[in-house]
């Protein structure tokens, strides 16, 4: 058996595959109709829509097979994605690439295979629409043409799925932004108007007016922070797909620290960046900065004259950033409230800093969207550590001396 070569642009190909969010999804009638039509036109007992993942092949639709063997190395489709043309094996027993392949020697005992690569608009070959038989044969010109047309239809279906998701996603984001605007921003603005009305009331002394002005300043600052979070989160959410780039993680953490450093100094806290300087990682930089900056701000909120540490670690094939503080800690019921999918977390900081919980809510929304998650550990009076996953370990970039 000859194993198929890995495509030159394999990482980019895989990123395109994951962008379509089709792996491990349930069977769908529209895809099943295409495989059934392919089998009938080509007069084969088996037909498959298969996608080639990093170490496996996965079937979205099957005709004549209950399941598709998962090993990429034994996959005929891994050979099909190396060409832009129809890939045809007329007699696998006489083909040195496949003669001793377990799919040939054992069930389903493939003798004939023809696969049309599923090519996206960017030119990446994600898998194949293939027809399979247990006897040697060849396709007619009409059957080859039909497979090409049906292969294009599979890609169009995939593009339609992702467009529908984008439309639904955008509508949901618009509704949520409207909800936040009406609830969390309308309130502070009403308070400002109330103050302006009271400020002209001669019944209040100058001292009382000064107290009202101080309260107004705090209210305005909180509203501006809310707006900044909302705008940044909206940008991240509405792009729908991640914009990954290779970054030096320590430098990214330093940038986040610089943006909130004044608030840290005002509370006499010390922040330490423990990320090693040689960690290179392929991530959505803006989104990770958004999450990290909010977590550092929260750590500072619940810490006074203490220490905040930011570190990097890997666990269970995932990369994590951790923000650990020596603050007041959180009770278990509050941790459970934070981790809930709905609702916002409201509490005051060590200097009675107010918060609306939007930052944590938006963090969870982003992490859920990208298949990542957040972990919280806390001990009252001793501090809290919050870890969030960035990506898989495969996104780490090795550094060669």
Descriptive notes:
The structure is a single chain. With 401 residues, this protein is α+β, with helices and mostly antiparallel strands. The protein folds into 2 domains: 154 residues, GAF domain (Beta-Lactamase, 2-Layer Sandwich), CATH 3.30.450.40; 160 residues, 2-Layer Sandwich (Heat Shock Protein 90), CATH 3.30.565. α2 runs antiparallel to α5, α5 runs antiparallel to α6 and α8 runs antiparallel to α10. Helices cover 45% and strands 21% of the residues. β1 and β2 form a beta hairpin. The strands form 3 sheets. Strands 2-1-5-4-3 form a 5-stranded antiparallel beta sheet. The mean pLDDT is 84. The two termini are 36 Å apart. It has 10 helices and 13 strands.
Percent strand: 15-25%
Supply the CATH class of the largest domain. Answer: Alpha Beta
Beta strand count: 13
Major sheet: arrangement of strands: 2-1-5-4-3
SSE topology string: HHEEHEHEEHHEHEEHEEHHEEE
Helix content: 40-55%
Instruction: Report the CATH architecture of the largest domain.
Output: 2-Layer Sandwich
Number of DSSP helical runs: 10
Rg, Cα atoms, Å:
28 Å
Shape: elongated
Please provide a brief summary of the model:
This protein is of the alpha+beta class. The protein is built from ten helices and 13 strands.
Question: Which structural traits does this protein have?
Answer:
401 residues, alpha+beta, Beta-Lactamase, Heat Shock Protein 90, 2 domains, five-stranded antiparallel β-sheet, five-stranded mixed β-sheet, 10 helices, 45% helix
Topology:
Elements: H1 10-19, H2 29-42, E1 46-52, E2 57-63, H3 77-80, E3 87-89, H4 102-105, E4 112-119, E5 125-133, H5 141-199, H6 206-238, E6 244-248, H7 249-266, E7 270-273, E8 280-284, H8 285-301, E9 307-315, E10 318-325, H9 332-339, H10 358-369, E11 374-379, E12 383-392, E13 396-397
Parallel strand pairs: 7-9
Antiparallel strand pairs: 1-2, 1-5, 3-4, 4-5, 6-8, 8-13, 9-10, 10-12, 11-12
Helix pairs in contact: 2-5, 5-6, 6-10, 7-8, 8-10
